[in-house]
Amino acid sequence: MSNAPVKVAVTGAAGQICYNLLFRIASGALLGPDQPVELRLLEITPALKALEGVVMELDDSAFPLLSGVQIGDDANTVFDGVNLALLIGARPRSKGMERADLLEANGAIFTTQGRALNDHAAADIKVLVTGNPANTNALIAMSNAPDIPRQRFNALTRLDHNRAKAQLAAKVGATVSDITHMTIWGNHSATQYPDLFHALVRGQNAADLVNDQEWLESTFLPTVQQRGAAIIEARGASSAASAANATIDHMHDWVLGTPENDWVSMSVPSDGSYGVPEGLISSFPCTVSGGEYSIVQGLEINDFSRAKIDASTAELAEEREAVRSLGLIS
Ligand code: NAD
Ligand code: LMR
């Protein structure tokens, strides 16, 4: 093996998402079967002992691609020279909480981590935020890292994208691999808008194929929008393995590229495309080539979709105001 290891920072490393995620990164699911990785794991001090146990299990898995593991509770040390950062560590919501309740509890984590990435990460750093409220936490990290290009900060809406594909596949009797061009617009929250008007099922327009506006509005949208809450209700804990899987999917595609003739949903800083206010970290259809994403341009947005996208981006703008008034961004 001749490739130098890629340094991957992961926060919240003793938590439930990471108990799945770390083993998949080390097995090659993130960067492929020929790319060694070094893990840099950040936790809060009281969780370091539990994290030591996770590291024992990583050791005991004898992953050929895992060239090293470092753990710590100081972001400045753990983020030193990292190429990729998966920011997962944050308090998950429990039954009855909405994401907005998490803004204050979790927002402060991302000021410190944004600054630490700014000062210590490698020049090619890519940052993906999974910890909720993911879009606004990414905005906080980005705003506290003025020397890192803004487009290096993404948030996770790939889980919503995957959920939407699964629901559509079940409705039309297809497999998820028959479905392309799915899009989640807006926020990773109950206002997100999963768009069937551009999705294709074996090349056929999904909205035309379904031909059931009642199902789209009363079943499909709320099922995808509320899926996180449904899992919390059923499991008594928030989604973990599927969140880890989506985190891998997003970063894998951001580094290695999206398939030809398809796109994926990525929450990225808006450049004003589709009327989304510039600077908000909002979900868009994106393609990736050479490690750089582009927002797919030129899609026609009907009135129904316009209203849904506007509602979700209005929520993102409100979250931005809320964290500004908390002093987390300027
Ligand atoms: P968890 O409570 O099991 O683990 C979170 C871990 O983060 C804990 O071990 C905690 O000690 C650690 N942590 C807290 N503050 C930290 C800090 N400042 N630095 C480093 N680590 C810190 O939670 P989980 O189930 O793994 O979920 C993690 C986050 O991911 C939650 O915010 C959850 O809501 C979110 N989530 C997002 C999506 C998505 O699609 N975007 C999906 C599922 C979960
Ligand atoms: C999810 O979508 O499963 C997570 O964001 C957890 C949550 O709070 O909904």
What is the averaged pLDDT score?
96
Strand order in the largest sheet = 3-2-1-4-5-6
Helical content (DSSP H or I, runs of 4+): 40-55%
Largest sheet: 6 strands, parallel
**Molecules bound to protein:** nicotinamide-adenine-dinucleotide, (2S)-2-hydroxybutanedioic acid
Helix-strand makeup class: alpha/beta
Oligomer: single chain
Any idea what the shape is?
Answer: globular
What's the SSE pattern?
EHEHEHEHEHEHEEEEEHHHHEEEH
Strand content: 15-25%
Distance between the termini: 46 Å
Report the C-alpha radius of gyration, rounded: 19 Å
Poorly predicted runs of 5 or more residues: none
How many individual β-strands?
A: 14
Number of helices: 11
Can you walk me through this structure?
There is one protein chain. The chain is of the alpha/beta class. Helix content is 42%, strand content 18%. Strand 13 (281-289) and strand 14 form a beta hairpin. Helix 1 (16-27) crosses helix 10, helix 5 (134-143) packs across helix 11 and helix 6 runs antiparallel to helix 8 (213-225). The N and C termini lie far apart (46 Å). (2S)-2-hydroxybutanedioic acid binds next to helix 9. The site of (2S)-2-hydroxybutanedioic acid has 10 residues, from helix 9.
Give the gist of this structure.
This protein has helices at residues 16-27, 48-60, 75-78, 102-120, 134-143, 158-172, 206-210, 213-225, 227-235, 241-256, 303-325, and strands at residues 6-11, 37-42, 66-72, 84-87, 126-129, 153-155, 179-180, 183-185, 193-195, 200-201, 204-205, 264-269, 281-289, 292-295. It is an alpha/beta fold. It has a 6-stranded parallel beta sheet with strand order 3-2-1-4-5-6. Strands 7-10-11 form a 3-stranded antiparallel beta sheet. It has a 3-stranded antiparallel beta sheet with strand order 12-13-14.
